Amino acid sequence: MKNLIEQKLLLEMTNFEIQDGGEQRTVGDIIEFKVKNILMSLSDDENIKKCLEPRSKKSIEDVTVIDNDDIKYYIDTKSHNVDSSFSMPNLTSVEKLRKLLLSKNGNLIYVFVSYRVSDKLVNIESIDVKYVWELSFDMLRVGSLGKGQLQISNMNKAPIFTNIGKTEWFSTLKSIVRKYHDDRIKMIEKDKLKWV
User: Is 0.85 surpassed by the pTM of this model?
Assistant: First the structure.
């Protein structure tokens, strides 16, 4: 599935022009909209049963692709301006990710689109399509948002990928999240002493 998505995007995702005043968020929104439309057209492929819109505004996916074996691929797009001074994007909550990784037929795929804006032209620099468990923990962190938010530490650094597999990756994630919660408990206990 990942290869099919990548081939489709590399073929159809092209450079485009923006109007005056196009801010980074606007460009990012346009890229995510274009990727979504391309992915929705995968329903024409003989190996795909259907493509679905996001379940809600808070869903982890921009598009869900369901293959003929009823395997679900939740796909989320992350855009990145390579000329930005710093970028630490949120991926998903660790709780949502835990539930998804425990499901039998659910997979999470990220589409990373890097771009550069020159005058009014948005140039697509690269497109990477990866399962969440192919993202190396050397470039990930758990941020303090809700029950914990999986983040990319710095999108301006070259991405680091891994092939350790879903099971080992999930096991490592569990250890990292447990440490995150232990650290939070210590911080809360320390803050609580101020109110004694």
Answer: yes
